[in-house]
Amino acid sequence: MCPITLEMMTKPFMLVQSGQTYEKKALQYALIEQPNRDPLTNAAFEGEAQIVPNHALRKAIEQWTEIQAKVSDHVKRYRRQRRCCCC
């Protein structure tokens, strides 16, 4: 989850100066609002913000999302099979 939006990230980007990862657009907006400050810790940093994609986290989120979809499908099928004639 992005610490700014509190939503699942689809484009996780890391602020190099702090090592923290955020949703790309949320991070960009936060850095416009408060340049040279980490949005999570509010710590100041020197120089221009450097952001890079967090490929490992993006892949992990994609895998987790796929697993959750499969689990959800299994649960739905199970519930359909378990219904009685009056439900």
Description:
The protein is an alpha+beta fold and 87 residues long. The protein has one domain: Herpes Virus-1. 44% of the residues lie in helices and 13% in strands. The chain has two helices and three strands, in the order E-E-H-E-H. The protein has a three-stranded antiparallel sheet with strand order 2-1-3. The longest helix is centred in the last third of the chain and has 28 residues, at 55-82. The protein is elongated and about 65 Å long. The mean pLDDT is 90.
Question: Please, what is the average pLDDT?
Answer: 90
Distance from first to last alpha carbon: 37 Å
Query: With helices defined by DSSP (H or I, 4 residues minimum), what is the helix count?
Result: 2
Question: What form results from the Cα inertia axes?
Answer: elongated
Biggest β-sheet: strands ordered side by side in the sheet = 2-1-3
Percent helix? 40-55%
What percent strand? 5-15%
Number of domains: 1
Structural class: alpha+beta
CATH architecture, please? 2-Layer Sandwich
The H-and-E topology, N to C, reads as EEHEH
CATH class: Alpha Beta
User: What is the fold-level CATH name, i.e. the topology?
Assistant: Herpes Virus-1
Topology, number of strands: 3
Q: What would you report as the Rg, rounded to the nearest angstrom?
A: 19 Å
List the uncertain runs: none
The major sheet is characterized as:
3 strands, antiparallel
